[in-house]
């Protein structure tokens, strides 16, 4: 017999109660990982969408519109180079004092920067300080995302067991398509406004409203417990003194491998979801709403596919799904741009759904779990954060800018951009050859 609130309770009832409490904690942790991640990516992608629609006109002014757009994309890409620093700073905190507290800090940093972008005066009001302050706030967003990804993945993975780890690890990965979908829908709705009103104040609305989402995310995250894996590591004293030094000394090969594997997931996605907005509207004559709707539909499909792919990875493994998605990405690079060149809204939507919703989804679904299984608990936050953000910095934020530069350099030909996608996939396949499958292993 056991007791609850002073009353004797049969052992079976006590066991059931404990199981239900544990299940509630796990579900809340999963919700916290997904919602917090979705909010932060929503904030992050707002900038990416508006880089081609607003910031090149209000903050990065030039006599040459191509230069303005390149500068705008450069500010988008700069945040990716600061993301590894965010990963280092917050992963150190996460591996030392826990995942929960770190995730609250990243959400506060990201939310504050996003809100301030919404109230920032433009170039016409404060001159050169406008792009400078915008870049500084964008860098703060990069720091926040750099620390967010690893923590949200571990919040899910370290609550799971080996039989459902792939599914659990896929849930925080929903943050990317959910955030992109929310951002795209917001911009699509607002783009229906008269151009002068949209450029004057309409674009600021989603940045300001994100403050409400941040409060919701903070409330959910404050109500969760630390992950069981970290609690066990802390109890046993298995806490790295300086996680970064230990990671770079003993696990540097794993960091480089994860960074290389990241290439196929990150670069192509930003071409399919961000660069395509400028390319399809500016070079192919599509309406902005048509492109945004295609991206929104593709991300909706992805939201359905990611947990399905995560569940499948618990049966067949992470590595086979990631390899399959990468090979498909390589094979679809040329057909994707050919379908866009048909200048048909239908084929644009089909191409975007295939690229993001079908091919990219398995990569995103298993990436967090696969990377987490490579590192031990005491440096796991640092290992996956540094590897992931290093890959994102090299092939992620630079992708729209490089793609635009390739178009400009090769007389508006999309062929070099397709080759760029293929190169990213080949590098990832080489890296994947060095990753072992850990589907049936305890972590």
TrEMBL record:
CDD domains in alphabetical order: MFS_ShiA_like
Superkingdom of origin: Bacteria
Transmembrane spans: 29-55, 67-90, 102-120, 126-146, 167-190, 202-220, 269-286, 292-309, 321-339, 345-363, 390-411, 417-435
Keyword Transit peptide attributed: no
GO molecular function, one term: symporter activity
Signal peptide: none
Keywords: Cell membrane, Membrane, Symport, Transmembrane, Transmembrane helix, Transport
Domain Major facilitator superfamily (MFS) profile span(s) in chain numbering: 29-436
Localization annotation: Cell membrane
Membrane topology of this protein: Multi-pass membrane protein
GO cellular component, one term: plasma membrane
Cited InterPro entries: MFS, MFS_dom, MFS_trans_sf, Sugar_transporter_CS
Primary role: May be a proton symporter involved in the uptake of osmolytes such as proline and glycine betaine.
Protein family (similarity comment): Belongs to the major facilitator superfamily. Metabolite:H+ Symporter (MHS) family (TC 2.A.1.6) family.
Name of the protein in question: Putative proline/betaine transporter
Organism of this sequence: Paenibacillus xerothermodurans
